[in-house]
Amino acid sequence: MYWADHAPPHFHAIYSGSEALIEILTLRIMKGMLPPRALAMTIEWAAEHRSQLLEDWELCAMNQTPKQIPPLV
């Protein structure tokens, strides 16, 4: 996530030179692409941490430091 980024709430997923912007509420790709396996893992992780992602989005919107979210295990 980036400070004061544009709506809707989303995060940037970067993998091996590819980048996708993923909307938090729907988990759909807004822009870009990731390889299929990386995308599947990213969506699985985001689904598990959707509420934390939304909380971090709000913190970033208020120019506050987002909380760390654990990786996919």
What does this molecule look like?
With 73 residues, the protein is an alpha+beta fold. It has one domain (10-61). The protein is built from 2 helices and 3 strands; from the N terminus they run E-E-E-H-H. The protein has helices at 36-48, 50-61, and strands spanning 10-15, 18-23, 29-32. Strands 1-2-3 form a 3-stranded antiparallel sheet. Strand 1 and strand 2 form a beta hairpin. The longest helix has 13 residues, at 36-48. It is globular, with a radius of gyration of 12 Å. The model has no long low-confidence stretch (mean pLDDT 94).
* Spatial order of strands in the largest sheet: 1-2-3
Major β-sheet annotation: 3 strands, antiparallel
Beta-strand content bin: 15-25%
Q: What is the residue-averaged pLDDT?
A: 94
Q: Uncertain segments of ≥5 residues (pLDDT<50)?
A: none
Provide the succession of SSEs. Answer: EEEHH
**Share in helix:** 25-40%
Question: N-to-C terminal Cα separation, in Å?
Answer: 21 Å
The total tally of domains equals 1
Number of helices: 2
Task: Find the count of extended strands (DSSP E, 2+ residues).
Answer: 3
Give the overall silhouette.
globular
Rg from C-alpha positions?
12 Å
Structural class: alpha+beta
